[in-house]
Amino acid sequence: MTTPVQLRPAEKAGRRALWLAFAAIVLTFMLPLAGLFVAVFALVVSIRAIPALRSAAKPVGAAVAGIVISSVALLISLAVLALQLYLSEELAAYAECKIGAGTVAAQNECVDRLERAMEERFPVVGPGQLQFPFPP
What we know:
Shape: elongated
Number of helices: 5
């Protein structure tokens, strides 16, 4: 009978950093605020894993990959949150309109209003240029 292989804490640190970084990137696309917090946590864990791996003479590739992935997740979540804050009035008006829309035509009108309101907020987008491929 063989016993299961036990990983030492240093070997677990690299994997933990990588898994947290993957969780951060997934959460960033689903819930940007949660992705922001998990990305910061993953970045800290990844940075702390490097000395632990070096002291155990293990490769630091997983920890470095964790740093890169969590940094990307952090930047994406910050950009999405900034965009949501910039467009908060338009998104709130769209949510209110969507609640009161009882027909498909009324829902399409809400989407059209959102597109026009967003065009006004972005100076580089001309009138009628912004069209969602599907309603948000």
